[in-house]
Amino acid sequence: MKQEIDFIKFSPTQNMTILIKTNHPAETYRHIASKIMSYDNVYAEQVGFIEKSKKKVNAHLQMAGGEFCGNACMALAAYIASEQGLEHNDLREILLEVSGTDKLILCQVKKKQNEYCCQVTMPIPNKVEQRMIKYDGIDLDMIIVRYQEYIHIVLEVEQFDEAIKKRAQTLARLLGLTLGDKLIGILLYKSESNELAPLIFVPQLDSLIWERGCGSGTASLGAYLAWKNKKEIVAEVMQPGGMIKVVADFNGDEIASIKIEGSVAIVAQGKAFIEV
User: Fold this and answer.
1) What tens digit of pLDDT does each residue of 92-131 get?
2) Which pLDDT belongs to residue 36?
3) Do 96 and 22 have their domain in common?
4) How many domains does the chain have?
5) For residue 194, what are the contacts with CB-CB under 8 A and spacing of at least 6?
6) Is 47 exposed, middle or buried (0-12, 13-18, 19+ CB in 10 A)?
7) Do both 112 and 147 map to the same domain?
8) What is the pLDDT of residue 179?
9) pLDDT in the model for residue 137
10) Are 274 and 41 in contact (CB under 8 A)?
C-alpha cells in the first residue's frame, strides 16, 4: 500500500532537507523519514515535520529523530516567509517551537533573488569542556559541547583524511550507544583554514551522514571558539556545501548568545509516495 506525502525540499548550504506538510501520527515519523530520505525516493540528509503549535509561534518543527536542527529551522522559516509573500529585500521575523530544545527559536529571513538569507538564534550549550581520552590506540584531544538533548564533539585536525573520518564514524556510533542523546555530532575542524567537516549521527533513525553544511555544528564550533578565546567570535566557516557564518557572544565567563547565518533555496515541492 502506498501513502501520499506532501513535502518541500530545501538546500540550506547543500544540507538537503525535507519538510513534511501533511499530518501523520508521531509514531510513523521515523518510518516516513527513512523512506523519503532514501536514494530511491526524494533523497535528503534529514527530515522534519511541520506541526501546529499551542504556543504563540509560527509553527512547530518536529525532526524525525527528535533532534534539534539549525538548518531545518532556516528551511522552515524561509518556507513560512515565502508563503507570506515576502518580497525581494524585505525582512521577516519567524518564531518557531523546535524539537530538541525547550527554547523558542527566532529566525530572521530576507529574500535575495531566488534564495532566502536567514539568521537563527541558536540554543546555548549547557557546558563546553576539553577532555583527553585514549581511543582506538591514540590519545584523542576533544572538545565536548553538550546541550539539553544532543552533544557535539569538536576535533581539531590537520587534514580530513579517510583514517580520521573512519575513526569519527566509529566514535559517533559508540557515543550513540552509550550516551542516549538524540543526536551525536563529530565536528572535524581545520583551524588554519577555518574549515569544518560535520558528521551527524541520529541514533533513532540509524542515520550517519557527512553533511554538506551543518548549522548546529557551526554554532557549536562558534561556542567552542568563544569559550577558548574568552571573547566574542565572528567567523565564516567553510564547509563542503558552502559558508555558514557564526556569531558567538562571550560575556564575563559564559557564552551569552549564538547566531548563525546562511542561505536557503527552496528546490522542490510536491507529493512523494512511500510503502506503509
Assistant:
1) 999 999 999 999 999 999 999 889 999 999 999 999 999 9
2) 96
3) yes
4) 2
5) 235, 236, 237, 238
6) buried
7) no
8) 86
9) 75
10) yes
Q: Could you tell me if 172 and 215 lie in one domain?
A: yes
Provide DSSP, 98-127: ETT-SS-EEEEEEEETTEEEEEEEEPPPSE
Domain identity same for 146 and 255? yes
At position 14, the amino acid (one-letter code) is Q
Output the domain CATH number for residue 85. Answer: 3.10.310.10
Are 9 and 40 part of one and the same domain? yes
Q: Worst-scoring range by mean pLDDT, 153-157, 177-181, 209-213?
A: 177-181
**Of the candidates 193, 241, 199, the residue with the CA atom closest to the CA atom of residue 220:** 199
H-only helix segments in 112-258: 162-179, 215-229
Q: Which three cell numbers stand for residue 53?
A: 503549535
Q: How many CA atoms lie within 13 A of 207 on its CB side?
A: 26
Residue 110 and residue 203 in one domain: no
The mean of the pLDDT values for the chain is: 94
The secondary structure element, H or E, covering residue 35 is helix 29-36
> Range of 34's domain?
2-120+264-275
Claim to verify: residue 255 and residue 132 sit in the same structural domain:
yes
> With bands split at pLDDT 50, 70 and 90, how would you rate the model's confidence at 12?
very high
Q: Quick one: 252 and 135 in the same domain?
A: yes
Sign of CA dihedral 171, 199, 224, 65: negative
pTM recorded for the entire structure:
0.93
